[in-house]
Amino acid sequence: MNTKPYRLARALLVASLAVAVPEVYAQQPQQTPCHWWQQIFRNCDERIAGLPDEAPRAGTVVTVDVSTNTVYLFRDGNLVRKSAAATGSGKTLENGDDIWLFHTPRGHMKVLSKIKDPVWRKPDWAFIEAGERIPPPDSPKRLVKGKLGKYALNLGEGILIHGTDDADSIGKYVSHGCIRVPNDMLQTLWKNVPVGTAVYVFESKTERGN
Questions:
Q1: Is 34 designated active site?
Q2: Domain coverage including residue 194
Q3: Which residue, of 3, 91, 106, 180, has the greatest Cβ tally within 10 A?
Q4: Which of 44, 103, 108, 162 is catalytic?
Q5: What pTM value is reported for the model?
């Protein structure tokens, strides 16, 4: 049997595969490197809606997807509950040399404290926005009860996850930076989220409509 044609055909096949394989591989989606907690608790290639790759899969975690205005509560990588929310409008307010940007910060935060029956201390911009005269710092006009709902989770830098007296705002980009949630979700978070819980605010989409 003359094996030369066979060897030649085999060599050509191997050569063609050597060229084709890298091209096909380049078209495959690149996987995010596995974190140690992902390797322990689940397949790291698995994506969980509402849980960004950098968030741990162990313990209690709260996430906020600004792209969809959705708040999620996870325990050990499993969804406990999710809800529509309201986040920062992205608008700016100017008054003389003062400029305020109403933006919900992205990134990794944590619950620093929990507040029952929070009282909103109105800042200067709230009066300017309403077209009202700014009162002295110690004026009782600055203290507003019931505006933030029954509970609040303090994330620091003036950012809270709290309730609202404006139910129609839920699901919209209307807040001044805080994260508003409806009363039933607020109660769930209050009961299930201890101080120190990690909170991840992220965008699942790079662009969103206004």
A1: no
A2: 48-202
A3: 180
A4: 162
A5: 0.76
